[in-house]
Structure formats: C-alpha cells, structure tokens
Amino acid sequence: MRPTRWARIAVTAVFVVHGLVFASWTAQIPAVKAHLGLTDGTLGFALLGAPVGSVTAMAGAGWLLPRLGSRRVVQIALVGYCAAGPLVGLTGHLAALSAALFAWGAFQGSLDVAMNTQAITVERAHRRPVMSGLHGSWSIGALLGAGAGVVAVGVGITLTVQLLALGTLGLLAVGLLTTRMLPDGTSDLAVDRADISASKWSGGMVLLGAIAFAGMLCEGAAADWASVYLSGSLHTGRTAAGLGYATFAAAMVTVRLSGNWLLARHRPDRLLPALAALATTGFAIALIVENLVVALIGFACLGIGLASVVPTVFSAAGRIPGLHPGRAVATVSTFGWAGFVCGPPLIGHLSALTALPVALGLLPILTAFVAAGTSTSAQLRVAPRLDDQPEPTAEHRAAA
C-alpha cells in the first residue's frame, strides 16, 4: 500500500478517536453533577474548563508544530489526551473538576491542531481534497462515542473506567498507525521567523479566522439551544425537542462525508457561499414560521450550510504562502473555538434581553457573513488546485 494511503488511514483513525473519546463522556455529565453536588451554574463554569484549555493550548501547539512536525505532536498529544481523560472521573470537588477538564481540553486542542496539520500534509500528497471527509469521520466518531457513553451509563460503568477503556483501546488501535503519517517539513514550508510573524496576522488569515469564528459560533449555539428552542418556544415534547440537534448533526455529517467529492468538482468560493446562503434562508424562514417541521428543515439547512466551512477554511489557511500549516491551523482553530465557546452564552444573554427566537436570529446573520466571506476570500478564490501540486517528495515516499 502506498505511503500516502497509509497516512490517510492513520489520520482518519486519529480523527475518529478524537471525536469518540470526548463525546463518550457527555452521557456521564449528569452523574458527575450529582456526585459532586453541583448546580447548573457551577456545572456550567466547570464545563468551560475543556474549551478554555483547548484554546490556551493551541498557541503552544502552533509553536511546536514547525519544530517537531505534526506526526510527533499527534503522537504526544494523543497519549496525553487518552491518559488525561480518566482523571476527570476521579475528581472530588468543583476546582478539581475544572482543572482536570482544562488539562484534558489542552491535550484535546493540541491534538486537534496537529491532526488537522497532518491532514493538510496528506491532502497535498494525495493532490485532491480529503479534509471534509476527515471531519466527517470525526463526526462519526463523536456519534459512536455518544452511544458508547449511553451504554456505559445504562450498565453502570463509571466515567473513569469508561474513559480508561476507550482511551486504551484508542491508543492500541491508532498509536502504531501514527508512525505511518507523513513528514510535513518540506522545503517550501521552510520559512524564517520573520516571514511567520508577517504572515500570521495577514488580512487573508484574519478573514479565514472570522469565518471560522462565525461558523463555529453557530455550531455551538445549535448544539446547546436547539432542544431548548423546540421545547420552549415551539412547545414540543422532550422526544421531539431532541430532534433539532439530531437533524442538524445528521445533515452536517452527510455533507462532510460527500464534501471531498463536492470540493473536487466545485470551487470553494462558489460552493461554500451557496451552502451558506441555503442555511441563511432556511433557518431564517424557520424562525419566522415557528412550526416543528419547518424548524427541523431549518436546522437541516443550517447543518448543510456549515458542514464544509471549517475543514475548507483549515485547508485554505494551510496554503497561505510563507506560513507553516501548523501555525495557520492553530490560528484559525483559536478563532473557531473562541466562537464555539462564546456562542451558547451569547445566545443566552440575548434571549434574556429579548426572546430566544430573536436571539437565534443572530445565526442567519452569521451564516450570511460566512456566505459573503467565503465568496471574497482570496485564499479560497485563488488557492492552487491540489492536483497541480508537485509529486510527493522522496521523504514522503520513504515515510512508510
């Protein structure tokens, strides 16, 4: 099997494990809350530990990647990620839970940046789009992890045992595969420190970061507020309320898994604006009509419109001249995770001042910005075709 094929299998496996391990703990959150005697407010504070840890660690990952390479950083972060997870279940009070989630989130964020950097390397070696499919693999892993967590709760398995088992299985299944990843230290990426500093905050990078911020803010808001909107504003039952985010997630997974095919046939600066326009129109109509079926269609449109935004923006950032892909991905990821963290509380505050349907009106505004931004981004408009990239270097061919 060709080295690039092995590398793609390896990075796909890492994406799956990343989503599986973290999503598996969500079903255990109520048990952790009850065990520590937390209120909704104190639990919300503790849960911020993971995304704050992720955002904090991304800067460090961006510094390490040009020096160690994505393959080595993936290996280090994967071990830390699988080892730190079980510590969350061993905590006995609020401060310890926050600290454990912060540490776990730091490894999660570092692994996120490193695996996306490796994905850019694999995409270049394959000379065709692969990033969207990899993010679809992450979504599949997250769905499997959520299911595993539900089963663990049902049979009485504790969080520590659950994460220790999944982390160990993940390391055994993926650890050896990471040795087949490709080196990303090619000559065209050997830029000096001055070039890195000059490129990191270019106008093109800031626009890509703003697009990621807007897209992931919408994702975070949909995850936390879909069921609340359906049950509260539309007065549906609990089962129907859960369909909102499920519809959003299913649409997103479907588009991500077909995203490689779509992006191989349509320019990103045309495809992404069209999908984002669909999200803008569909979700805005859903908020105006206030009907369950229309609302579910609106959430599906939102998932379709956002599905390929982050993976395509990561790929575009990784092609900015004079900037190492690891630094680029770290910068865009920081923007994106900041949006994901800010989204739910921002919608909550706006809802308290007005009403939830009005607050959710921010989402079609942001998807309209995504449509405009992706249509005008120079990185998306003039990015070189992957099939025009040079053949893999001897270093790449020898990696396996």
DSSP summary: helix tally: 20
Q: Give the topology string: H per helix, E per strand.
A: HHHHHHHHHHHHHHHHHHHH
Supply the CATH architecture of the largest domain.
Up-down Bundle
Radius of gyration: 20 Å
Regarding CATH, which class of the largest domain? Mainly Alpha
Number of strands: 0
Summarize this entry quickly.
This protein has 400 residues and is mainly alpha-helical. Helices cover 80% and strands 0% of the residues.
Walkthrough of the structure:
This protein is mainly α. It has two domains: 3-181, MFS general substrate transporter like domains (Growth Hormone, Chain: A); 198-388, MFS general substrate transporter like domains (Growth Hormone, Chain: A, Up-down Bundle), CATH 1.20.1250. The chain contains 20 helices and no strands. Helix 1 runs parallel beside helix 5 (70-88) and helix 10 (203-233) packs antiparallel against helix 18 (362-376). It is globular, with a radius of gyration of 20 Å. It starts with a helix and ends with a helix. Mean pLDDT is 85; it is low at 186-199 and 383-400.
